[in-house]
Write a structure and sequence with these properties.
single chain, 409 residues, alpha/beta, FAD/NAD(P)-binding domain, Enolase-like, domain 1, five-stranded parallel β-sheet, binds flavin-adenine dinucleotide, FAD/NAD-linked_Rdtase_dimer_sf, oxidoreductase, FAD
C-alpha cells in the first residue's frame, strides 16, 4: 500500500515485541512511507520470556533471545532514546536522546511502551534485592547466581514462580514468599493454583503462603527478609516480582486516557485520538468476546495486538476491524508447561475435562454463566483444540477434545 497523504510518517514508540510486530506488519502490508522506531533500551529488540527461564539458567546465550527480524524493515531506529511527551494535536512526540531533546512528527503513532516492574514500596533496598524485567536485569541476577546464593523470591506471580523454578533447577536454596494463599492464585484460581504450590514444594522450594515481607535484613548487602508473621528467612539474593505498571508516564498531559494503560477501542485505536493506536502490555483494549476492557501482559497477545494495531492505522478511521483473538499464554516451571487459552476472569465454575491433575497431564475449563471462557492445560498444545469452544461461548463444560480416562482433581 503506497503511503497515503494521511499516512506518510509512522512512528512506533517502544521496541518490544508489540512495537516490532507492528512495524513488520506495516511493511508486510505494503506501507512504503517513513517508518521510525524509538526504544529506550540500548539493546536490539529481544524476547522477554526466556529472561526468567533459559537465559537465567544459562541454557541459552544472550544472542539467543534477540527478535530475529523477518525482513528489512527499512526503518529509522533510535536506541537508548526515550519518548518524554506526546502532543496529540501537533502530532509530535518529544524525545530525549543522549541529553539532546528532539521532536518527531507523525501521521500515525503506535504506542508500544510495555510496562515496568513495580518497585519495592518500602523505599530504598539493600544491594542484592533485585527485580526482573529487562535483559540487563536478567544478566545481573544470573551473575549473582554463580556465587550460589540463598535465594528468596518475593511474589508468586508468573515471574516469581519461574525465577524460583529456574534457581532450583540450578540447585540453589530457594524460598518463595507469597501474600495470597498460593502462587498464581490471581490467574489460575483457588481450585488449580495450589497444584503449582505443590509443584514448587516437590522440587524443594520453601513455599511460604499467606505472609508478606515486612522488611529486609542486612546492612549494605541483604542478609535476609523479615516476614510479616515475625519469621526470618536468610538470603544472599532477593528477587522481587510484584507485578508491573504500564509505561504511560510519558503520555501525561497528552489527553489520552491512561487509567490502567492506554484506553483503546476494539481495533486498538486510542480513545479520543485519531491515528494513534496502542498495543501490548501498555494497552487496554475492548475485547468483544469478554465484553470489557482488558490489559493483558503476555507475549503472544502483545505480538498479535501489535499486528492488529498496524492494520488499524492502515485501514484508517472507521474502516478498521475489531480484534477478537482469544488471548493465549504459557509458563514453564520445571518440567511442566502451563498453557492458558482465554481469560478466566470472574469465572463461576471450573472443571477438569481431560486427564488427571495429580499426574500433571490434564485440561481444565473455566466457565461463566454456563459458557466456556478459558481452558488451562498441561498437555502441550491441547488448549488450542478448545479455541472454537471459547470463541463460540460453548456450553460449560466443553466436550473433551479427545476421549480421556478417569478425571480427578
Ligand atoms: C521475565 C519475563 C518472562 C515472561 N515470560 C512470559 C511467558 O512465559 N509467557 C508469556 O506469554 N509472556 C511472558 N512474559 C510477558 C511478555 O514478555 C510481555 O507481555 C511482552 O514482552 C510485552 O511486550 P510489549 O512489546 O508490549 O512490551 P515490552 O516488552 O515491555 O517492550 C516495550 C519497550 O518499550 C520501551 N519503552 C518504555 N517506555 C519508553 C519510552 N518512554 N520511550 C521509548 N521506549 C520506551 C521499553 O524499555 C521496552 O523496551 C514475560 C515477561 C517477563 C518480563
Amino acid at each position: 500500500m503506497p503511503a497515503t497523504r494521511e499516512l506518510r510518517e509512522v512512528l512506533v514508540v517502544g521496541a518490544g515485541i508489540a512495537g516490532i510486530r507492528a512495524a513488520e506488519t506495516l511493511r508486510q502490508e505494503g506501507f512504503d512511507g517513513e517508518l521510525t522506531i524509538v526504544g529506550d533500551e540500548r539493546h536490539a529488540p529481544y524476547h522477554r520470556p526466556p529472561l526468567s527461564k533459559k537465559l537465567l539458567t544459562g541454557e541459552v546465550h544472550r544472542a539467543g533471545v534477540d527478535i530475529a527480524p523477518q525482513f528489512d524493515l527499512d526503518a529509522r531506529v533510535w536506541r537508548s532514546a526515550s519518548a518524554v511527551s506526546l502532543d496529540a494535536t501537533a502530532r509530535t512526540v518529544h524525545l530525549r536522546d543522549d541529553g539532546r531533546d528532539l521532536s518527531l512528527r507523525f501521521d500515525g503513532l503506535v504506542i508500544a511502551t510495555g510496562a515496568s516492574a513495580r518497585e519495592w514500596p518500602g523505599g530504598p533496598v539493600p544491594d542484592g534485592v533485585m527485580m526482573l524485567r529487562t535483559v540487563d536485569d536478567c544478566l545481573a541476577i544470573r551473575d549473582r547466581l554463580a556465587a550460589r546464593p540463598r535465594v528468596v523470591v518475593v511474589g508468586g506471580g508468573f515471574i516469581g514462580a519461574e525465577v524460583a523454578a529456574s534457581c532450583r533447577s540450578r540447585g540453589l536454596d530457594v524460598a518463595l514468599v507469597q501474600r495470597a494463599s498460593s502462587p498464581l492464585l490471581s490467574v489460575l484460581g483457588e481450585e488449580l493454583a495450589p497444584r503449582w504450590a505443590d509443584l514448587h514444594r516437590e522440587h524443594g522450594v520453601d513455599v511460604r503462603v499467606g505472609v508478606g515481607v515486612d522488611s529486609f535484613i542486612g546492612g549494605r548487602h541483604v542478609a535476609g527478609v523479615r516476614l510479616t508473621d515475625g519469621t526470618h528467612l536468610a538470603a544472599d539474593l532477593v528477587v522481587i516480582g510484584l507485578g508491573v505498571t504500564p509505561a504511560t508516564d510519558w503520555l501525561r498531559g497528552s489527553g489520552l486516557r491512561t487509567d490502567d494503560g492506554v484506553l483503546c477501542d476494539a481495533t486498538g485505536a486510542a480513545e479520543g485520538a485519531e491515528g494513534i493506536v496502542a498495543a501490548g502490555d501498555v494497552a487496554t483494549w475492548w475485547h468483544p468476546l469478554y465484553e470489557r476492557h482488558l490489559r493483558i501482559e503476555h507475549w503472544d497477545h502483545a505480538a498479535s495486538q501489535g499486528e492488529a494495531a498496524a492494520r488499524t492505522l492502515l485501514a484508517g478511521p472507521g474502516n478498521a476491524a475489531a480484534y477478537d483473538e482469544v488471548p493465549y499464554f504459557w509458563s514453564d516451571q520445571y518440567e511442566v508447561k502451563l498453557q492458558m487459552l482465554g481469560v478466566p476472569i470472574d469465572y463461576d465454575a471450573v472443571e477438569v475435562v481431560e486427564g488427571d491433575v495429580a499426574g500433571w497431564e490434564f485440561v481444565a475449563a473455566y466457565g461463566r454463566g454456563g459458557r466456556t471462557t478459558a481452558v488451562l492445560a498441561t498437555i502441550p498444545g491441547r488448549v488450542h483444540a478448545y479455541r472454537d469452544a471459547i470463541s463460540g461461548g460453548a456450553a460449560f463444560p466443553p466436550a473433551p477434545a479427545v476421549s480421556s480416562a478417569s478425571v480427578s482433581v
